[in-house]
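Quick illustration for those who missed Monday's session on complexes.
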Amino acid sequence: MKPVTKMGAVVLVLFTIGAFISPVKSLDNGLALKPTMGWLHWERFMCNVDCDTDPNNCISENLYIQMADVMVTEGWKEAGYEYVCIDDCWPSHQRDAKGRLQADPKRFPRGIKKLADYVHSKGLKLGIYADLGTFTCGGFPGSMGYYDIDAQTFADWGVDLLKFDGCYMKWTLLGEGYTNMSIALNQTGRSILYSCEWPLYEWPHHQPDYAAIRKACNHWRNFADVYDSWDSVKTILDWTADHQDVIVPAAGPGGWNDPDMLVIGNFGLSHAQQESQMALWAIMASPLLMSNDLRDICPRSKQLLQNTRIIAISQDPLGRQGYRTAKVDSFEVWERHLSGGRLALAVMNKQEIGGPRGFPLTLATLPSWKICHPQCNVTQVLPSYKELGVQTLLSKLVVVVNPSGTALLTVTPI
Ligand code: GLA
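Prediction with alpha-D-galactopyranose bound:
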């Protein structure tokens, strides 16, 4: 086993410095003190508006009613998943006589207010989608020129979260637009969690101002849309690690980097890859917004998404985002500092040939292993729960990691 690569060492030094810089001020709306948990329709259901031929899967009030029902009866709410979120393609193509957005009357015959009431009656919250430009990405009416009216409409309906997209907008006006909508939402007096895509649309032009973004938004997408594939998940992880010195210090209670939805329970990821997405999204303190069909999900995926030990890492009250600390021998090591001086460790096996491989936990592979001096307690959370007991710097602990899978551990100093 080779020691930590030179690059790994550099990354480690950068992050030891970054760890002591206190996060910039967050949006002061008292929301998202922990990464948001819920369900969002986009990746799985996209812009399916054909309720005549596909009534079960089209974007209609029934989809959210059914998801809300299942979230309560199948343990999702109890596990912490709270927001039921509508993405693009919900509105009518015309605003009403007062210039307000309205839901497509055929697909949402009772309107969004009634839907919000229903979702609230289940003890859940409702999210909606709009766009700061002239159109949404799917070609529905944008909010440009209507920020105050739209914010007030969403508040009147009882909406609890707004995902605000950035299509059809001049990139130089993104900052102004996202900030103005943040102010408009605040002025309604209703608590509305504000999910932005501001940096995603700025990166092609320049490095975004994360202090400004954190002041306006509760989370923000940085990178491309997630697809139901391992390639997509890997690309998101690579982008995140490559930009971690810029984006990780911005995260903390009230504001989070958003690497996009969990696609666990769909078609494209093997079980080991689903474990990797879940483990790494917890390490990255990412919103846990599932995009899958909760009415029909395989029991193993469900168990993974409801795993209380992984959710506890995601929701750790310290609210520090983890980061990649080493790349060695086709493994990646990611670490997240947890409350109580504990550490979460994810070891991902990037070798996509062969079988499970062992990764030794030693000071050479893992400088933060020093928390095991004089002793620590190690719990393996993935791929299976195992108490690995008391360890020291001299222990010869080896974790076995499946190809494209991840071993997730917590380490508690004694
Ligand atoms: C953009 C966003 C996606 C989704 C679609 C909807 O691509 O990044 O998450 O909201 O728009 O059209």
